Amino acid sequence: MQSLKDRIEQLGKTLGKQNIPKSYTDYKTVRLEHEALANRDVRQLQKEGKRSRIQTLHGRSDLNPKWTFDNLIEDSEDVKEAISIAHSFIAAHEDTAWRKSGSHMMIFYGDYGRGKSHTAGAIAHELINQYEITVLYRQLSTLLEMRFFSYDYSATDNVGEKFREINQELLDVDLLILDEVCVNESSLKKNAQSWLGNLLRQRLAHNKNCILITNHNLAQLEQALGSYCFESIKEYDTYKVRFEGPSRRKEIIPSQVETQRTTGYQPNQVK
């Protein structure tokens, strides 16, 4: 006696349909295949979205794109120590509880061209890439100039409104890098000390992190910032990093040996 399957195959042959499939894919397998494809598409969209967000964060940070660890010259012990501290600071961001536990401040101090800004920028780039941390790099002197001109109520360039917008960014951003702190200044004016002190205190209250970069030593920095502002810094969990290695910047003024070298040609010779 023929089974139902045999009868269907016999009917197919009779009707000239020789290629009737002998197997089929069940619903569960089809569903799993579609879910896998859907998850793949979602992961791709998430990856593209993250890439777009990171590009936006880099664009708004105002960081020098060359300030990376790959470009940082490790030619002295102070730079090596700074890089070690920097990597520890970056790795700590993996712990969300640490991020919310308090405010952290790194003070990079030392002479010009020692790698302070470069190291701070490298930290910022890594935090953006790994954790999508919002970063803002600003020179303090530029902010103080803009703040001064914001009081010109007769100005037509909206500098007051621009400064208020920037001031809000200074408060909101996750990591604020202030460079050239008190550059060429033995003491900030009292109103500037108060403004900076208030800014740091408000960031402290909202668990926001800072990096201060200065050419002063710590005693000179305290004198330049004033007691009120420096007391704000003391409230942070503070890491102090001194840069004292050789300058990495190219020389413009020739060395003594080069200036003594003659070429055989001397202009304005009178014979």
Explain what you see.
This protein has 271 residues and is an alpha/beta fold. The chain has a domain of 167 residues: 3-Layer(aba) Sandwich (Rossmann fold). It is 54% helix and 11% strand. It has eleven helices and five strands, in the order ααααβαβααβαβααβα. A five-stranded parallel β-sheet has the order 2-3-4-1-5, sandwiched between helices. Strand 3, helix 8 and strand 4 form a beta-alpha-beta unit. Helix 3 packs parallel to helix 5, helix 8 runs parallel beside helix 10 and helix 9 crosses helix 10. The longest helix has 35 residues. It starts with a helix and ends in an 11-residue tail after the last helix. The C terminus is likely disordered.
How is the topology of this model organized?
Blueprint: H1 4-14, H2 27-61, H3 77-92, H4 96-101, E1 104-110, H5 116-131, E2 135-139, H6 140-149, H7 159-172, E3 175-179, H8 190-205, E4 209-214, H9 218-225, H10 227-234, E5 237-243, H11 256-260
Parallel strand pairs: 1-4, 1-5, 2-3, 3-4
**How many strands?**
5
Structural class comes to alpha/beta
Order of helices and strands: HHHHEHEHHEHEHHEH
Q: How far apart are the termini?
A: 130 Å
From the coordinates shown, what is the CATH architecture of the domain at 77-243? 3-Layer(aba) Sandwich
Low-confidence stretches: 262-271
Within CATH, the superfamily of the domain at 77-243 carries the name: P-loop containing nucleotide triphosphate hydrolases
Give the percentage of residues in beta strands: 5-15%
Major sheet: arrangement of strands: 2-3-4-1-5
CATH class of the domain at 77-243: Alpha Beta
Sum up the overall morphology in one term: elongated
What's the overall average pLDDT, rounded?
A: 81
What is the CATH third-level topology name of the domain at 77-243?
Rossmann fold
Helix content: 40-55%
Largest sheet: 5 strands, parallel
Cα-atom Rg, whole angstroms? 31 Å
Summed up, the helix count is 11
Pfam families: IstB_IS21
Organism: Paraglaciecola mesophila
GO molecular function: ATP binding
Protein name: DNA replication protein DnaC
